[in-house]
Amino acid sequence: MSTVPHPHEDAARPGDAPRLWAVVGATGTGKTALSLDLAERLLAGGRPAEIVNADAMQLYRGMDIGTAKLPLDQRRGIPHHLLDVLDVTDDAAVAWYQDAARSRIQEIHRRGADAVLVGGSGLYVSSVLFDFRFPPRDESLRAGLEAELERHGPGALFERLRRIDPATAAKVDPRNGRRIVRALEVLELGERTHGAVLPDEPRLWHPRTRIIGVSVAREELVGRLDARVLRMWRDGLVDEVRRLREQGLERGVTARRAIGYAQALAQLAGDATEAEAIAETQALTRRYARRQVSWFKRYRGVEWLTPGAAPSSLPEGTDAAPR
Predict the structure, then answer these.
(1) The domain 139-188: what is its CATH number?
(2) What is the CATH number of domain 1-130+204-249+279-323?
(3) For the chain, what is the mean pLDDT?
(4) d(CA 251, CA 245)
(5) What is the pLDDT of residues 91-119, one digit of tens each?
(6) Distances in Å between the alpha carbon of 131 and those of 168, 197, 203?
(7) pTM above 0.90, yes or no
């Protein structure tokens, strides 16, 4: 059972401005359940709450099993936002997401409710919580770089980035082709940072922000994640991917590369056995979870919870910026 902050300090009082909550952590730690419990606790304390999705892959319609998307009948009547808003052929750009999520949060606040941002996509979460400003885009330039990525792979482009701007290259995963392309695009447009990392001195976007992190011991998390991948295959991920392939999944820039979906596509194409697809998905999921832990550990002032542990209380106005 998830634990949530006790409402004695956080119950709404007449005239209180609505707040922004964030529930963050690695995949498989129980963020979804905690966000639902938190929303119910806030309502019991006198403030309604609505949930805003911050999982990049849950933005996509039809990508349900592989993203552990919460079914409508399990949302406890709590309004959810930014689920199922993109087709699998759309590109999920973080600058677009920042604008969409902040707009939804402002709408929620105008209704007098608290907003609960929940998800593990670190850059997406940070783009909302902190004062991120994104550099410009150039569609034709990016298309050329993406064509190079397809021809030569991320290694060659990463080496170019490392030669041009070693400081930026040190902050980019050399296997992440999309991040490398974005870094090179921005550098060629004359900017010196590519917008895919936290600012050096981040400031909170919303003054009444409180961040709750969910943490599970590494050994336990590995077991959870491996079991979760097996369950995805048992629950019909391959059939889900087969349907999405008919809707253009293989043409999608972002969706087709999602962990689990790329491996299921390889299985359908005969390029991997089921056992190979499952094993690769498990390995990539574990690696992704490690990156998520590292990302969110940089945040200052987070109230970290473990399943079953009683949380401490954070005073109002706690600085929650990243380290």
Answers:
(1) 1.10.20.140
(2) 3.40.50.300
(3) 87
(4) 9
(5) 888 889 999 999 999 999 999 999 999 99
(6) 19, 12, 5
(7) no
